[in-house]
Write a structure and sequence with these properties.
This protein is α/β, with parallel strands linked by helices. It has 14 helices and 14 strands. α1 crosses α14, α3 packs parallel to α5 and α7 crosses α12. The longest helix is centred in the C-terminal third of the chain and has 19 residues. The chain is globular, with a radius of gyration of 22 Å.
Length: 376
């Protein structure tokens, strides 16, 4: 089976964009199976050269700096692929490419990546998006073999926009990145707990809600808490930290990659993700793989993993985020067990090896149905 992934960007492992991490995880692991070959076709208008062949760890990227190059690639190579896997919604490039794929009768599926959640829709160009979907995107969706949801919760968002079949596979982490032993914790009530957030500071990530929640905590809780925010700095976040006089508690670290970011993860005691909407974010999964217990919002679509007792679940409200922080601080004795549970969850369900095997099974079923001869 030959599969082509299409996305914007270069599938850069150092990118803060979770979609890149998903493509890397799936492509590199699917290529380990016999008779499976996955390549990535990408568009990066910042690229100087018209075309660049990029060798990633486990797969290649055909990167063009113009959409014409992308279309030419499909025109010349469409017979070499059995399936195309598109990523994200509200992408004109996807819709234009889908027209050509239909022309060549090349089947495709689409990963939605939480782009249809209600809050994200309402926050940006809602009516324009509704019109765009009605006129253009709906046809792209309806002609897909399937739409890929990251979680079962995300299915509820997708069915509002399409009746196309939905397949569900979570985000994961590389098996060789999962640590072997859970973290250990000092039970002294005066010892500090170091929290960590990693990702963008986009509105849906609700960083302001996290900072306001820390400000709401009684002083005795703030005295035993440090939180590192790792991501592109914004003036609004800096001002909010200063307004609440939290520079001694909330530390704005800026963007980090590689060993520098790994050092912060290694030294953290827990992970925190307070998004208004997300779909089992890759940063959360990676934190679990490093044995970090977590505080995460229910609206990040993690409810089906709550049974593992690896995280505390809160609502994306200031008061409830503060409740979660208090609970974690008051229950230090539970953290070691939560760390062990986090590793159990990742090893069983949230690693790319397991996810890729399940996705490959869906690829095969979808193509079998697509190629099934019509009964007279």
């Amino acid at each position: 089976m030959n599969v082509l992934y299409f996305s914007l960007g270069k599938a850069n492992p150092n990118s803060a964009n979770g979609i890149n991490q998903v493509i890397i995880g799936l492509a590199s692991n699917l290529n380990k199976f016999p008779d499976v070959k996955v390549q990535v076709l990408s568009l990066s208008r910042k690229q100087v050269k018209p075309y660049q062949l990029i060798q990633r760890n486990g797969f290649v990227v055909h990167c063009y700096n113009s959409f014409k190059g992308v279309l030419d690639f499909i025109s010349k190579n469409n017979k070499g692929y059995d399936l195309v896997h598109l990523h994200n919604a509200w992408t004109i490039e996807n819709d234009r490419l889908a027209i050509m794929l239909r022309k060549y009768k090349l089947p495709y599926i689409i990963s939605i990546h939480a782009s249809l959640t209600t809050d994200r829709m309402l926050r940006s160009n809602y009516y324009a998006k509704k019109l765009y979907h009605h006129l253009i995107q709906s046809r792209t969706f309806s002609n897909a073999l399937a739409l890929h949801a990251t979680t079962y919760e995300e299915q509820l968002d997708i069915v509002k926009y399409s009746k196309t079949k939905i397949i569900t596979h979570p985000n994961g982490v590389m098996n060789n990145e999962i640590i072997k032993k859970p973290k250990t914790y000092v039970q002294d009530k005066l010892s500090k707990l170091r929290g960590l957030y990693v990702g963008r500071f986009a509105k849906e990530k609700n960083i302001q809600g996290l900072i306001n929640a820390v400000a709401l905590l009684p002083q005795k809780y703030r005295d035993v808490l440090d939180i590192d925010l790792v991501g592109p700095k914004t003036e609004a976040v800096e001002k909010l930290i200063a307004k609440h006089e939290l520079k001694g508690v909330v530390h704005l670290q800026g963007s980090m990659f590689g060993e520098e970011r790994e050092s912060f993860i290694k030294n953290a005691d827990f992970f925190i993700h307070t998004a208004f909407s997300d779909a089992c974010p890759t940063s959360f999964v990676y934190a679990l793989s490093q044995g970090l217990p977590a505080i995460i919002t229910r609206s990040s679509m993690v409810s089906y993993f709550y049974k593992y007792n690896a995280f505390y679940m809160v609502e994306p409200l200031v008061e409830d985020i503060a409740r979660g922080l208090k609970k974690l601080i008051d229950n230090k004795v539970e953290l070691a067990g939560m760390s062990e549970s986090a590793l159990k969850l990742v090893n069983k369900e949230l690693n790319w090896e397991v996810i890729s095997l399940n996705l490959l099974s869906d690829y095969e079923k979808l193509l079998s149905e697509y190629n099934k001869p019509l009964v007279a």
